[in-house]
Amino acid sequence: MMLDTAVLILNTDRPVKEPVAKLRGFIGNQFPDYSLLHHHVENGYLCTYPKVQYKIIEGTPFMVGIDEGAKVLKEISGDIKKLELGNSVYKVSSKQINEQEVEVVSQRVMYNYSFLTPWFALNQKNYAKFMEMKDWREKKLFLNNILVGNLLSMCKGLGIIVNSRLNVHSRLNEEIIEFKGIPFTGFTGEFTVNFRIPDFFGIGKNTSHGFGTVRRIKELEQ
């Protein structure tokens, strides 16, 4: 399936140090009429794969828009002059928007990916199961199955039908991540899967807040 995407890069006068939640909150408040930016609707909350995702990588904030989310980013990009994140104000010195039509599909070949931001893999239920496991090989298989489930959930949210079985191999490192001031267990590292994921798409929990951002490692393709 082909998707229209837009990556809006916001170059600021200095590196951004605040968490992604601040960026998401500011943009959502600046443009309240666009529900895709803040995921709030009249009767609750948009509970689906986010069509607009926020990222801060190495101090540079940017946003990823998918299909109608890409249209939203193109509409608002000209009105973003500064970022007010908590007590900090950043001047947006320049902007760049990259539009591309990308394919999201299962393949016969394996693709290699790295996590640019920590993968938020565990919810309350599977965290308890993960902590009960003593053997790292068992944990790795458990995480690989979660990763497959995350990819299938992403596809469901984007209206993509997966007709073949997904096979994942991973090389992950466990680390503590923080979300809304609360510590959680997250993972960084690399994985391979017979599925084509566009660069900068997020997988797992809280992708709209920048977690689980992936990029393809093309030089390692097999």
From TrEMBL:
UniProt key word Hydrolase: yes
Origin superkingdom: Archaea
InterPro entries noted in UniProt: Cas6b_C, Cas6b_N
Pfam families in the record: Cas6b_C, Cas6b_N
MF-aspect GO terms: endonuclease activity
Organism in which the protein naturally occurs: Methanosarcina baikalica
Residue ranges constituting the Cas6b C-terminal domain according to the UniProt record: 109-217
Protein known as: CRISPR-associated endonuclease Cas6
Span of domain Cas6b N-terminal: 1-102
Keyword Hydrolase among UniProt keywords: yes
Keywords: Endonuclease, Hydrolase, Nuclease
